[in-house]
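note to self: dont lose this again. the chain is below, predicted strucutre after it. 358 aa total, dont forget to put it in the shared folder this time
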Amino acid sequence: MAAAAEQPRHMSGVKRRGKAQYVQAKRARRGGGGGGPRQLEPGLQGILITCNMNERKCVEEAYSLLNEYGDDLYGPEKFVDKDKQPSGSEEEEEDDAEAALKKEVSEIQASTELRLRRFQSVESGANNVVFIRTLGIEPEKLVHHILKDMYTTKKKKTRVILRMLPISGTCKAFLEDMKKYAETFLEPWFKAPNKGTFQIIYKARNNSHMSREEVIKELAGIVGCLNPENKVDLSNPQYTIVVEIIKAVCCLSVVKDYMLFRKYNLQEVVKSNREGSQPNPGQDSQVKNGKRAKLELENKSNESDSAEDKKNPQVVVEGSKEEGLQSPLSETQMESEKGAKSENGSQVLEDFKSKESD
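---
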């Protein structure tokens, strides 16, 4: 039985492949070998995108949007011709199947390295979250350019994408690793002589061992140590430190105009800009009608006041603040004053007559 079982192997002269070799070859064909990572891990740059229950559509919109603005900033993407790719020593033929498999894997790796795309979707590790790995571009510059254009043109270009956050670096999601990484990561923005106001935004997904208060406290302490003139401003900061933790990976970035661009929300930045800058025509008519009604009410009130003034003339007391105005007296007051004057005059005549008789 043992001889019969070994007979096919001796006849063919080829060793059986292990399971690990099949898995390795499958990953290489998918691009998981030399074609870049297939999931979020430390040491990457990219763009973190949140969507609304449709990740496939989100990836399609992200590719379309990023390629459009990427070509605008960095020019069209260039590829290497497939015929010019190095294929290794094709003349050498090896009988060993294992060596042949390694050769095939190395060729696939070399070809994929030459054809790395500028934007490549990888597994983020969280639902409704897409991570687009970037190569040869600056994520902060690209995303800020996209939001600025949408803010000024008021054109809605996405339906599924909600937020788009640039990620300048990733590290392990442990406090000590984050502190060590942030000390050098935050230097271009906050190390003296550079300075500015800042705030820290923290979000954790599928992670329960990190403390929000500890992370914010440690990062704020690092920024303060880089330059004591860096101040916290939660209303309108110059820089916003974004901390996004997914499973065991921490994503960091420093962005500008975070509050102006509605927390980098592509849906809200168009809505708020359009509604805030240009009111609706119905609102304009309502405003005009309200102003017209207000003016009519003011005219009516002025007319009623003038009629009342004619009927009841006002009396201004002496020593009042109004200057240059003489107080019109009522008829009763004028008659009383005349009577008082006549009485005083008769009294004076009687006194004079009594003096002459004496």
